[in-house]
Amino acid sequence: MNISNISSLFEKKNFILNCSICDARKVKEEDLARYEHIIINSDVLLVNEESKSVLARLPMVFNTDCTLDVEGDVNLINQNGDYELTAGAEMAENTALIVNGNLKIHPGTENILRSLLTVSVNGRVLCPESLVPLLKNLSLNGELTAYPDGCLVLASSFSIDPYFPLRARENGNYFVADRLYVTDPKADIALLVSKHARFVTPSAVVIEEKAADALALFDETVKLEIVPAGYAYVSGNACLDGSLLSKYGSSLYIDGSLALNQDSAPLLPGIEKLIVKGQVSMPECLQDAFLKVPAEYDSLDIQKESKEKYVEDRPYLVLDNAMLDACPDGLIVRDCAVVRIKEDVPAEKILERAKFHDCKTIKCSPEQQSSVSLVSADCSSISTEEDGEKGPGLMNTLGQILQSKVVNADKYIL
């Protein structure tokens, strides 16, 4: 960019709008026609027939979660997070409900659902089966989960603790959207059965000691996972350390992956039996000791000791022959903003000794580019000097910033 034209930097050629709600129904073409580029980033965009034709003639880019085609006044509820529709709640006419989270619809909300102009949900919708036909105006980016009418909805992943059987209702029907856990040895499952409690759920984990009683709690369509007798159930991923053994004992059923480190070595002889439903990962030095443990697992991930050196978190790094020669076992360049490779570094040496991870820009010669691409992962740009001449420089980038009018707002009327 010619410095003599520096004043042109401040001429606004781009319009960028960041907002939750953009009301474009009264947009005028003449107000925006002077911009070369118009970018609208919004959760909700309100349009009508007239405004759609105006917007189509403008150089606009829309990034929006929900576009509503409505006339007249609209009562907009824009919820960033979970939301519940409850019986008896008052809702104004022409209400549009936008939920960036989960929506729970309670029984008795038929009239509310009929009155809503539209419902847009980015998440899960949970509602009684009888209300599903009323969701005609639903726009859903997620999952619709319907449960039988008359069920009390519990947490989506619910574990029966020792107190739940005492609190449960006679003939109570319960819904668990994802998974039911019957893994607490102290829970009186027989008491639940005597109360004729029933659970509707797609999946259940049951310890073998409670299986005979627990099977009466749900029907045969439930995907069932039985934890063998004598094992302590561990939910999710775990690390083999002293606190794990202190809490659960020496016989473990891990419903996830298990990680071992150097501190795990003295604990391995104390494990009586082990089941891991996922992957077991460990340093190579622990492999022989682990294989002596009575264990079942999906897969092993043995981490070989690396002699590679690291360079990371640099705003600008020049990679030359001297740096690679100092790293005969390899060099990993990670999380650097700009990496420039000297032209005299041979492509073969890059293949043999260099790796690039999560770097924004790597600049190299055309002869080096293919080799750099083969040893790079999650790098935004690999460019040559020729590309740089064609692409935008610092002044052009600065110019784009200065020539942009940026508006940040909760609600904006075009």
- Cα gyration radius (Å): 30 Å
Uncertain runs are 388-395
User: How many beta strands in the DSSP annotation?
Assistant: 33
Approximate helicity band: 10-25%
Spatial shape? flat
- The whole-number mean of residue pLDDT values reads 90
Structural class: alpha/beta
Major β-sheet, in short?
6 strands, parallel
> Count of DSSP helices?
13
Instruction: Compute the separation of the termini in Å.
Output: 32 Å
Assess the beta-strand content as a share of residues: 35-45%
| Count of structural domains | 5
List keywords for this structure.
single chain, 414 residues, alpha/beta, 5 domains, 6-stranded parallel beta sheet, 4-stranded parallel beta sheet, 13 helices, 39% strand, flat
